[in-house]
Structures are given as C-alpha cells and as structure tokens.
Design brief:
By secondary structure, the protein is an all-alpha fold. The protein has helices at 2-24, 28-47. The chain has one domain (2-47). Helix content is 72%, strand content 0%. The chain is elongated, with a radius of gyration of 12 Å. The relative contact order is 0.21.
Length: 60
C-alpha cells in the first residue's frame, strides 16, 4: 500500500501543478480538465484512507 500511496500522492501533485499552470497560461478549459482529474484522484485517496495535503503554493 505504501507504493500505491506514494504514486497516488505524486499523481495528485502533478494534476494540481498542471491545473495551476493551465490557469496561469489562460487556458481555462484545460484547467477544468485537470481539476476534474484532481478531484477523481483525491476521491480515490479518500476511498483508501490516504491522507493528502491541500497546497496553495503549487505554481509560483
């Protein structure tokens, strides 16, 4: 489970970074796709009782 949790947390971080980058680049449609993926990944983490951080500093 430890590897699963690590990979899932990495995928969550990647999706959050991609969403923030798309928003900064003025691509709201792309950002929404990443936001939906992020929500799915966070739901998956919750289903498996995996704690995830909420970050607001992902893209500087």
């Amino acid at each position: 489970m430890d590897v699963f949790a690590t990979v899932l947390r990495n995928r969550i971080a990647d999706a959050a970074n991609a969403e923030a980058a798309a928003r900064q680049a003025g691509r709201p449609d792309e950002a929404e796709l990443h936001a939906a993926r992020l929500a799915d990944l966070v739901d998956l983490a919750a289903e498996h009782d995996i704690a995830v951080e909420t970050r607001t500093d992902i893209v500087g």
